[in-house]
Amino acid sequence: MKEKRKKYNRSFKLNALQICQEKKSLSATERELGIYSGSIQRWRLKALKDQKDQSDKKDLTELNYENKRIEYLQRKIAESEMKFEILKNSAPYLKNLKKDIFTFIEANRTLYPVRMMCTVLDVNRKSYYNWKNGVVCKKQRQKDFMLSQISLVFFASKKRYGSERIAAELQNEGHNICVSTVKKYMKELGLRSKIRN
What are the φ/ψ torsions at residue 150 (nearest 5 degrees)? Predict the structure, then answer.
C-alpha cells in the first residue's frame, strides 16, 4: 500500500526554501526536514514560476496603463487639432454677426460635433438650436421691430434724418431708445443721412 503524501502549507515551503538556500544543500535540507526527495526542487521551480508570472502581470499592467495613457493623449491631440481646424475655417464668419456663426455651424455639423463648435466659437448651443428651428427670442423681436421703425422714419424723412433726429422722433412716439442704439442699428442697416452736420 502506497504511503499517503504529506501536504505542506505555503509558509512551510518558503521556510524550507530559505533553509536550503542558507545550507546550500538540497538533500541535507530534505533529510533534516523529513521531506520526500525532489520536493524542494519542485517548490523552488514553482516559486520561480510564480515570481515570473507576478512580474509578467506587473509588466502587463504597466503596459496597459501606458497604452491607455497613449490612447488618451492621442484623443486629446485629435480633439485639439479639430478645434484648431474649426477656428481656422470659421474665421471669415467670426467678423460678422452671430447669425453668420450659426450658418457656419449648420454648414459644418457633419464634419464636426455641434457641441465642440459651439464651445470653440463661444456660442450658446440653445441659441444655435433656436436659430436653426426658427425660434426668435423676445429681445430679437424687439430689435427687429426697432430696425423696421428706424427704417420707416429714415425713408419718411427722404434720407435726411440722422441718428439724433430719428431717436428724437421715436422717443416722441413713446419708444425707449437712445441715440447710440439708433446709430448702431443704422450702421447695421447701412443707412446714412444725406445731410452732414
Answer: -60, -45
Amino acid at 150: I
pLDDT of the residue at 20? 66
Contacts of 195 (CB under 8 A, 6+ apart): 160, 162
Task: Say if residues 105 and 115 touch (Cβ distance below 8 Å).
Answer: no
Confirm if 93 and 113 have CB atoms less than 8 A apart. Answer: no
CA-CA distance, 79 to 169, in Å (whole number)?
53
The CA distances from residue 22 to 10, 41, 157, in Å, are 19, 15, 112
Separation between Cα atoms, residue 16 and residue 10, nearest integer Å: 10
Q: What amino acid is encoded at 85 in this protein?
A: E
The whole-angstrom distance between residue 142's C-alpha and the CA centroid of its chain comes to 36
Residue 38 DSSP label: T
Query: Within a 10 A sphere around the Cβ of 119, how many other Cβ atoms?
Result: 13
pLDDT tens column, 58-98: 666 777 778 788 888 888 888 888 888 888 888 777 766 66
Alpha helices in 95-196 (DSSP H): 98-108, 114-120, 125-132, 138-156, 163-172, 179-189
Look up residue 147 and give its amino acid.
L
